[in-house]
Amino acid sequence: MNSAQTGAASVAALELSAAHQGFGNVLAAEFGRIVKNKLTIITAAVCIVVAVGFAYALYAMSGFGVDSTGENIVMGNPTADGVLSGLSVIGGTLALFFGLYAATFAAREYSSGVNRATLLLVPKRSRLLAARLLLWAALGALVGAVSFVLAYALLVLAGGHGAEVAGDMLVLRAAACVLVCMLACLLACSIGTLLRGGALSVLAFLLAQILLGMLLSILAGILPGVIGEALSQVSSYVFGAATEIMGNATALGEFLGALATAVVWVVVFSLLGAASFRKYNG
Questions:
Q1: Residue 26: how many CA atoms within 13 Å on its side-chain side?
Q2: Smallest Cα–Cα separation from 9: which of 119, 125, 127, 134?
Q3: Which sign, positive or negative, has the C-alpha torsion 162, 168, 169, 173?
Q4: CA neighbours within 13 Å on the CB side: how many for 68?
Q5: Confidence band of 206 (pLDDT split at 50, 70, 90)
Q6: What pLDDT, on the 0 to 100 scale, is given for residue 281?
Q7: What is the 3-state secondary structure of the chain?
Q8: Which residues of 84-97 are buried (b: 16+ CB within 10 A; e: fewer)?
C-alpha cells in the first residue's frame, strides 16, 4: 500500500475514533468520505451535464423533418414528443456513467486499505455497509432529481411546451430519473463490494446495465422458434432493460412492473455484497 493509500486509510480511521460508533456517527464519517469527496462531486456534475446534454440533443432532433419533396431535411421547431424523448434518456445515462463511478469507488475501498482501517474501529459490518448503501442511494436520487429539474427547465419551460406535455407523463419521467439513478448506484455499490476488483466490478456492472441485455436480444434474433422467444422475454428482465422500460413507460402499471424487476436485482446483489463483506478479513 503506497503513501497515498495509507493516508486515505488513516483519514478514515481518524474519522471513526471510537471502537463502538453509533449509526449516526458512522453515517457522518462515510458522508464526509464519499459525498464530500472532490472526485465524487466532479463526477456527479459531469454526469448531470452529459445527461442533460443527451436529453436536449434528442429534443432538438424532434424538430428535424423533410420538405414537401421528401428529399431535403429541414429544421423545424422541436415538439412536445421530443420533450418526453429527451427526458426518457436521463435516468439511463446517469445509471451508466454515475453507476460506473459508484462501482469503482466501492471496489477501491479494498485496494486503498480504507476497509481494513475502518473495520478495526467499526466491528459491526452491517452498520457500515448500511451507511454506505444509504449514502449511495441518497446521492443517486439527488443526482437524478437535479438532472431532471435542469432538463425540465431547458426543454419544457425554455421550449414553451408546458401546456403541451401531460402532467402524468412528466411525473413518470421524474420518478424514472430519480429511481433509476438511485437503483443503479445501489447495484453498483453492491457489485463493487461483492467483487472487490475495480476492472471486474466495472465489467459486471456493464453486463447488468447494457451487455447482457444486448447479448440476449441478439441471440433471440438469431435462434429460431421457442428458444428465441424465450430469450426475448428474458432480456426484458435484465436490470438495464428494466430501467429503460421505466424511462419510457407510458402507464403506471408498466412503470411499476419494471421497477419491481430492477429492485429484485438490487436486493439480490445487496445480499450477496453483504455476505461477501461479512467474510472479508483484510
A1: 23
A2: 119
A3: positive
A4: 0
A5: very high
A6: 64
A7: CCHHHHHHHHHHHHHCCCCCCCHHHHHHHHHHHHCCCHHHHHHHHHHHHHHHHHHHHHHHHCCEEECCCCCCEEECCCCHHHHHHHHHCHHHHHHHHHHHHHHHHHHHHHHCCHHHHHHHHCCCHHHHHHHHHHHHHHHHHHHHHHHHHHHHHHHHHCCCCCCCCCHHHHHHHHHHHHHHHHHHHHHHHHHHHHHCCHHHHHHHHHHHHHHHHHHHHHHHHHCCHHHHHHHHHHHCCCHHHHHHHHHHCCCHHHHHHHHHHHHHHHHHHHHHHHHHHHCCCC
A8: bbbbbbbbbbbbbb
Longest dimension (CA), the chain: 77
The pTM is what? 0.85
Q: How is residue 46 written as a grid cell?
A: 459531469
Instruction: List the chain domain ranges.
Output: 15-278
Q: What cell numbers appear for 170 in the block?
A: 412528466
Q: How far apart are CA 87 and CA 175, in angstroms?
A: 11
274: left (phi over 0), alpha (psi -120 to 50) or beta: alpha
Looking at the DSSP assignment, which residues form a beta bridge with residue 65?
Answer: 74
Q: Is the pLDDT of residue 16 over 70?
A: no
